[in-house]
Amino acid sequence: MTPRFDLADLRLFILAAEEKSLTRAARAMHLSLAAASLRIKALEARLDLRLLYREPTGVTLTPAGLTLLRHARRMMRQAALLQSAVDRHRQEITGHVRIYANTTAVSEFMPAVLRDFLRSHPAISVTLEEKLNPDIAQGVRDGAADLGVLAGPVAVRGLQRIPFSTDRLVVAVAQEHALAARSAVRFAAALGYPQVGLHTGSTLLHFLEQKAAEAGLAPQWRVQVGGFEALCRMVEAGVGIGILPASAARRHQAGLRLLALDEPWAPRERSIVLRQPAPRYVQALIEGIRAAQ
Predict the structure, then answer these.
(1) Residue 159 CB partners (closer than 8 Å, separation 6+)
(2) CB-side exposure of 260: number of CA atoms within 13 Å?
(3) Helix count and strand count (H, E) for the chain
């Protein structure tokens, strides 16, 4: 069996060799002489080798002890380098953050948040992936992501949830559309018209199809696009109407009318979910998300 080395034992051994005295080595390590002697004897027993000659005037090294001293010093230098490298991670807030987020977060506000965060934390790197809301919570719970950004009622058992803003879904229509004179519209009425939606796999598309299924309805997807800007431009061109978060719609609303979606689930609370305890750099990113809203 390969013997295991305790760094404290090695440090005691090195001090004893350098001081030529186990008494002085014990004093430097804040140990009793009896405790220091037991540690050296245990080290010799693990190695099945005699390391020190004990003499009335002190200790001297055996040939095996000289070999151990050379390698022990090297190990202690490597341990010091390791500690220094780890300390730099704490001092510089160095690390990697894995984020799972919904469609709105990925395409709308996280780019600006990450720009500012990465500018002030140059030693941090980030992976940002778009996921469905249930998958976000599960990914954080399983450790696949460090934090998640989601919206709406999602089970987050075992995680800390930090609400940070509220958005609401609206209906975007072209200015000449039949619904344009209204201020609000029910979901069922909106589904009576051709729809422009996001790509398959997006959080919002999944949510709207789920709500339609609950009402016994099916959206008529005329076009599916990759982002909110493209969705708004399709709506402006008269291809169909679109349901999207108000924050995204306002950014791209030129040529559109925005109607309130008259449903109790239209307001969507945005939350951050994470496991505890979180590293300092994850906490710093959370503060950046909250400050940006």
Answers:
(1) 137, 140, 141, 273, 274, 275
(2) 7
(3) 12, 12
Q: Spell out the residues 6+ positions from residue 242 whose beta carbon is closer than 8 angstroms to its own.
A: 171, 172, 195, 196, 197, 231, 232, 234, 235
DSSP designation for 106 = I
Confidence of residue 91 (pLDDT cuts 50, 70, 90): low
Length of the chain as a residue count? 293
Number of C-alpha atoms within 13 angstroms, CB side, residue 93? 16
Nearest to 26 by CA among 43, 9, 42, 46: 9
- The residue type of 41 is K
Distance, CA of 176 to CA of 179 (rounded, Å): 8
Look at strands 147-151 and 160-174 and give their pairing: unpaired
Closest by CA position to 263, among listed 222, 220, 221, 214: 214
Q: pLDDT by residue (tens digit) across 207-222?
A: 999 999 999 999 999 9
pTM value surpassing 0.85: no
Cα–Cα distance measured from residue 27 to residue 167, given in angstroms and rounded to the nearest whole number: 65
- Report d(CA 285, CA 117) in Å as an integer: 7
- What domains lie within the chain, and their CATH numbers? 7-85 (1.10.10.10), 92-165+269-292 (3.40.190.10), 166-267 (3.40.190.10)
3-state class (DSSP) for residue 116 = helix
Other CB atoms within 10 Å distance of the CB of residue 243? 28
The DSSP letter of residue 241 is: B
CB 143 within 8 A of CB 275: yes
